[in-house]
Amino acid sequence: MKPSKLKRDYVGCRVMTTCIFKTPLAIIPAYTEATITYHSARGSDLTFDPCPHCGIRQKVSHVKSGFVFISYGEKNI
Questions:
Q1: What is the end-to-end Cα distance of the chain in Å, rounded?
Q2: C-alpha 65: how far from chain center
Q3: Which domains, and CATH codes, for the chain?
Q4: How confident is the model at residue 10 (pLDDT cuts 50, 70, 90)?
Q5: Where would I find the H helices in 1-77?
Q6: Residue 62: helix, strand or coil by DSSP?
Q7: pTM
Q8: Pairing relation of β-strands 59-63 and 21-22?
Q9: Mean of the per-residue pLDDT values for the chain?
Q10: How far, in Å, CA of 21 to CA of 27, rounded?
């Protein structure tokens, strides 16, 4: 699949984080898989897969594109 030049086309794509994310509720380790659920000029909103230990699904907003590695596979909508 050819990479898109429009960031809005990445909504629904699977990504992998390249750094640690710290939120008030959790610490998300590097190389965790997520899905881009929304994109704006301030960054992307990521929804992470449920934690295998506790089952919590974390959402992080305003993530800049340099903090994720975008997989160019099919979208998971």
A1: 16
A2: 9
A3: 7-70 (2.30.30)
A4: confident
A5: none
A6: strand
A7: 0.75
A8: unpaired
A9: 80
A10: 6
- How far apart, in whole angstroms, are the C-alpha atoms of residue 10 and residue 8? 5
Instruction: Find where tokens 């990521």 sit.
Output: 46
* Contact by Cβ (8 Å): 15, 33: yes
Residue whose token pair is 């590097």: 30
d(CA 25, CA 14): 23
Give residue 1's pLDDT band: very low, low, confident or very high (50, 70, 90). very low
Cβ-contact 74, 64 below 8 angstroms: no
CA angle 3, 5, 44 (to 5 degrees): 95
| Averaged pLDDT for residues 20-34 | 87
Task: Give the Cα separation of 8 and 22 in Å (integer).
Answer: 25
Instruction: Look at the block and give the residue holding tokens 């994720």.
Output: 68
